[in-house]
Amino acid sequence: MSDSTIRNDVGHLEQFRTWFGRPLWEMQPADADAYFGRVIRDAAKGTRLARAQTLKTYFMFLELRHKVEIHQMTGRVVECPIDEMNRPRGGAEGKLRIPPSDMEIAQLFGGWRDELATCRKFAPTARNYAAARLMAEIGLRVNEARQLDLHDIKWDLGRFGKVHVRYGKGKRGSGPRERIVPLVNGAGRTLRWFIEDVWGHFDHNHARPGAPLFPSERRNADGSCARVGDDALRVGLADAAARHLPGWADALTPHVLRHFCASQLYHGGLDLVSIQEVLGHSWIATTMHYIHVHRTHVEDAWIAGQQRAADRLKGILP
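Structure (tokenized):
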């Protein structure tokens, strides 16, 4: 679990404890009824869900680690106060993120690429450009991209080379989930250009253990280049969109590029299971939310199916 997840959970537990005024293991379902039904009744749904999940996790910890000890000390049997009757229901659906078209993305990166010849600070601009291209080509999350090291690029694996994503997003605080992503869809070309022509503007020691793939202009205490922050990559993308794709100036984010990648791979013929593997989703239903088809997709698929059936009748296809 990340430090921020732990801080958020501790903050929720402190809110419970301040209100309850007694050890939390003494909470009963009636106390949870009062808290969720009256105290934070008007809070945002996400806040209620997060606080309920934190309390359930805390009681799971008590039951697994300290249930016998607490019973011996107090005579109380620890039991989670969140049950099927008082748990906050459901979760909010994610906001629909329909990505730009292929032509719009080509306009963005085309203008951004031309800008590299005249920009004031070549290295950081080229770094932001390369990171954004990876998000659009193989669907990396912004934090997955910034956490990559040079040694995570495995040029000798598979037909195209692969990238070892060591800090993939875990589900509900389960911790990082690793995955290996083939450098398809032009990602290998993007990385070769960046490493060979740009990376040396930040540092000259490619062999240094832990050398970040996307460095910052800042330096570590030992003089080596630090790792870029996610804010720098987000701001770089937003600034480029404002200049080269103004219609998306306030809407194009790294996550929208991830949706674009999934949709582009699907239109290119990749099946859902393969796209799920590329994006690192636990459930294929999640992957389906990332794929946005064109208005004519159903008609085009129908025509293609009819053509295949006609070819089979003519003996062209087996």
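Strands lie at 153-154, 162-165, 179-182, 215-219, 225-227. Residues 45-65 form the longest helix (21 residues).
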